[in-house]
């Protein structure tokens, strides 16, 4: 029997591109800034994003400033100003002692994954595995779906967080989830019904 109850709709947006020097390192939970040049160049993308997002909606960001800066850019480009709440459980993966290490440092390690330097079950020193993060993210989304049942929620978050959300929704392995592409300023739409998660779109791009 189909479920006619209105689902909770999540629009998950990966934050804007960070500064070039930050792209060269495994930044994880480091509080790095978005690239000022790209912020200017992407103005039309912010405007298009705002036009595609639901109204009304509850907006969430993580404790890292790049998510707030991205949300504020979307709002100022035409969506309009709404309150931003911080959801710590949707923060990026904690890479522990590896955070800030040059990406080149991982080039000579035995391959843990074909598209990512840290394997899904691998636990960085003093950090967390992707597998741990996906359970953290899954629990947070389930809680939010209950607290805001039937509403629209816009979450400006991180690539790892969005992969984790999709992994939980589709019961993917952590290794499989790390093969998902999640581009900056893309939208991934998921819905929570009373009995199951549903993926509506993944890595939705804004054509300019």
Give the topology.
Layout: E1 8-14, H1 20-23, H2 36-41, H3 43-52, E2 58-61, H4 65-79, E3 84-86, H5 130-147, E4 152-157, H6 159-170, H7 174-177, E5 187-192, E6 197-204
Parallel strand pairs: 1-4, 2-3, 2-4
Antiparallel strand pairs: 1-5, 5-6
Helix pairs in contact: 3-4, 5-6
Description:
Helix 3 (43-52) crosses helix 4. This protein has 7 helices and 6 strands, in the order βαααβαβαβααββ. The chain is globular, with a radius of gyration of 17 Å. It has a 6-stranded mixed sheet. Helices cover 33% and strands 16% of the residues. The protein has a single domain (8-204), classed as 3-Layer(aba) Sandwich (Rossmann fold). With 208 residues, the chain is of the alpha/beta class.
What structural keywords apply?
alpha/beta; Rossmann fold; six-stranded mixed sheet; 7 helices; globular
Quick recap:
By secondary structure, the protein is an alpha/beta fold. It contains seven helices and six strands; from the N terminus they run βαααβαβαβααββ.
């Amino acid at each position: 029997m189909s479920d006619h109850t209105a689902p909770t709709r999540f629009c998950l947006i990966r934050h804007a591109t960070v500064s070039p020097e930050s792209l060269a390192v495994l930044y994880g939970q480091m509080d790095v800034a978005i690239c000022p040049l790209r912020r200017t160049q992407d103005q039309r993308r912010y405007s298009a994003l705002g036009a595609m997002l639901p109204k009304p909606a509850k907006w969430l960001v993580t404790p890292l400033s790049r998510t707030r800066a991205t949300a504020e850019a979307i709002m100022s480009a035409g969506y309009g100003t709404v309150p931003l709440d911080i959801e710590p459980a949707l923060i990026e993966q904690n890479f522990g002692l590896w955070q800030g290490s040059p990406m080149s440092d991982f080039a000579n390690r035995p391959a843990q994954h074909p598209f990512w330097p840290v394997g899904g079950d691998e636990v960085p020193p003093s950090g967390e595995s992707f597998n741990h993060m996906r359970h953290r993210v899954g629990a947070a989304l389930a809680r939010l779906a209950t607290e805001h049942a039937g509403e629209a929620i816009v979450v400006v978050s991180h690539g790892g967080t969005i992969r984790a959300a999709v992994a939980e929704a589709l019961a993917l392995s952590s290794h499989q989830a790390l093969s998902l592409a999640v581009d900056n300023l893309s939208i991934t739409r998921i819905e929570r019904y009373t009995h199951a998660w549903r993926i509506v779109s993944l890595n939705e791009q804004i054509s300019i």
